[in-house]
Amino acid sequence: MKYAYEDLSEAQFENLIVILCQRLLGISVQGFAKGPDGGRDAKFVGTAELHPSKAAPWVGTTIIQAKHTNGYNRNFSESDFFSTSAANTVLGKEIPRIKNLRANKQLDNYMLFANRRLAGNAESEIRAHIAKECSIPEASIYLCGFEQLEIWLKTFPEVPKLVSLDPVDSPLIVSPDDLAEVVQALARQMDGMSAVLDDPPTPRVTYEQKNVLNNMSDEYAKAQRKKYLKETAQIRTFLAAPENLELLRMYESVVDEFQLKIIAKRKDYQTFDQVMEYLVDLLFNRDPVLRQHAHKRLTRAMLFYMYWNCDIGEVGDAKTD
Q1: What are phi and psi of 64, to 5 degrees?
Q2: pLDDT digit string, tens, across residues 130-153
Q3: CATH 3.40.1350 residue ranges for the chain
Q4: CATH architecture designation of domain 5-162
Q5: What pLDDT, on a 0 to 100 scale, did the predictor assign at position 49?
Q6: CB 42 within 8 A of CB 29
Q7: Residues paired with 62 in a beta bridge
Q8: I need a labelling partner for 89 at 20 to 30 A (CA). Which of 95, 176, 198, 206 fits?
Q9: Strands 40-47 and 141-144
Q10: Nearest-CA neighbor of 171 among 269, 73, 290?
Q11: Cα dist. 79→85, 87, 110, 117, 128 in Å?
């Protein structure tokens, strides 16, 4: 289950973090308040209930910060968010405040939440940097990206409900990351693969029948078939190769997510043309790999394959004589 944090306002994201921290630390977590320098943070004073663990909880004053971005597919290590050599980054601007709180004995522990990806090496580097600059033990610093947020929100399912963060009612949001990996790998293998297959992969309804079931226009359907039919056999061969088993699993994860999102939001679209174009635009806008000129056509071909292969959209029943 994934949530569209990017579609929350800054205040909604901060409220989400406060409620989550009330579960992790204690009900007395105080909400976000604007400081004299414009910074915003929340605070907890006491012994934490669950963090980092029940056996060894944090004790003292914990300062919590939430950094929200409306951008898609962002990460902690981007130069606008963190740099060891620049002070005008998102985190760089907070370092003086953290140092001041620490020097005045108003901070024992520090938590930073952001709706960004947090890789293991970035987590170690950023935590070590904050520890060094602000004289805080590394064990008293916690960074949380949206991977961990997903885990916390599954652990405390009531939290997203309290801020009306519902994945079913969210816009049609899909993750491009696995698809990017598939497209990258597929792009490396496309040379030398030229088989063409003109028949659907399984004896289900015909392409024309499926288009009627899904309300895809004849013009759009014909254009898609003309442009990308020759790619379907190449993609299928690639995904069926034993050495690409992990990529096949990634592909299956992608289509499962796409199909569930489409089912949930299908009522918002009059034609399946719009669904396909929405997915294309969303993927290109969110992932720099997919919007590279060399990958654009392949990304569209992959989406067509999903539809042609009956992995997304209504399928219906094949008629047999």
Answers
A1: -120, 130
A2: 999 999 999 999 999 988 998 998
A3: 5-162
A4: 3-Layer(aba) Sandwich (3.40)
A5: 96
A6: yes
A7: 44, 109
A8: 176
A9: unpaired
A10: 269
A11: 10, 11, 22, 14, 17
